[in-house]
Design a protein that fits this description.
binds N-carbamoyl-L-aspartate, 11 helices, alpha/beta, 5-stranded parallel sheet, 4-stranded parallel sheet, 40% helix, 2 domains, Rossmann fold, 314 residues, globular
């Protein structure tokens, strides 16, 4: 299995073969995670530092569990409370980190591009856990694994991504990945929540949700990212739910066996009806969380193999 990358900064640089390599290895880790012992040794002796400059519950917990299950020493640095507030630059942070000799660095940052910058300054493998509205590669990979398991394939599917596309790194990484694997991607949402220049991504754009869902195999709902909005993007949450909230009536326009996804955290009653989210016949939201741990184990395993090979050659 070859994965010719030193870091996982985005979906952008990945080939279809790279994506398949991660997903195939993740399948092994799904099996391991369902076993009694849950432990492997792919990261034994390595130090993983999680640096989250933005709040996160599931992504941070998922990376932490993934590292621990593969035998890494895992440390969480609470960046919210510390250096960033005191005005330390990203470069200083990188120098501090280098002195601690980490092997894997998992970073979430509110600014697009900050994780790439950090990767240029540290001597370890860097994984992007979400940078601004740019990319969130492990989310797109876990979504891809969830889709592949539910649909039996990851190509020639119609995937509707609905909601706040403009502010969403999840949408961006998913558009890139699904496009690369030759799926049809539709974006549904109010024009105020569509990013400028989105046509260049080879997607179809709808502002009518029922039309956009017609014949969809996968319905991926996104959270309204209120913390990234600086003004009136939507008239009101009630109006938004009426037009773009996923309920049974709107979902009936998708294929009868369409699956429903959401990266979390969910705003029930804003972008999705609670009953749909909990419907085990349609919703794969819990599977997404499970696949998240497996995909992160696979990504860190592949990067660690490369890191060890590079160090051995040096
Ligand atoms: C997403 C994120 O942080 O980008 N959440 C996640 O990683 N599970 C989506 C979101 O915040 O809405």
């Amino acid at each position: 299995m070859t994965f010719p990358h030193a870091h996982l900064l985005g979906i952008e640089p990945l080939s279809p073969a790279d994506i398949t390599a991660i997903l195939d290895l993740a399948e092994d880790y799904v099996t391991l995670n369902r076993s009694a012992t849950k432990h492997g040794d792919a990261l034994a002796g390595l130090t993983q530092i999680n640096m989250f400059f933005e709040n996160s519950t599931r992504t941070q917990a998922s990376f932490e569990l993934a590292g621990k299950r593969l035998g890494a020493d895992v440390m969480n640095m609470a960046m919210q409370a510390s250096s960033l507030k005191k005005g330390e630059t990203l470069i200083d942070t990188a120098l501090t980190l280098n002195a601690m000799h980490p092997d894997l660095l998992v970073v979430r940052h509110p600014h697009s591009g900050a994780v790439d910058l950090l990767a240029q300054k540290v001597r370890c493998a860097v994984l992007n856990a979400g940078d601004g509205r740019h990319e969130h590669p492990t989310q797109a990979l876990l979504d891809a694994l969830t889709i592949r398991r539910a649909k039996g394939r990851l190509h020639r599917l119609t995937v509707a991504i609905c909601g706040d596309i403009a502010h969403s790194r999840v949408a961006r990484s998913n558009i890139l990945l699904l496009g690369r694997m030759e799926n049809r991607v539709r974006l549904i949402g109010p024009p105020t929540l569509m990013p400028a220049g989105i046509d260049a991504f080879g997607v179809e754009v709808y502002d009518d949700m029922r039309r956009g869902l017609e014949g969809a195999d996968v319905v991926m709902m996104l959270r309204l990212q209120k913390e990234r909005m600086d003004g009136g993007f939507i008239p009101s949450e009630r109006e938004y739910y009426h037009r773009y909230g996923l309920d049974a009536e709107k979902l009936a326009h998708a294929k009868p066996d369409a699956i429903v996804m959401h990266p979390g955290p969910m705003n029930r009653g804003v972008e999705i009806d609670g009953e749909i989210a909990d419907d085990i016949n349609r919703s794969v939201i819990q599977d997404q969380v499970e696949m998240g741990v497996a995909v992160r184990m696979a990504a860190m395993d592949l990067l660690a193999r490369n890191l060890r090979a590079r160090r051995a050659a040096a």
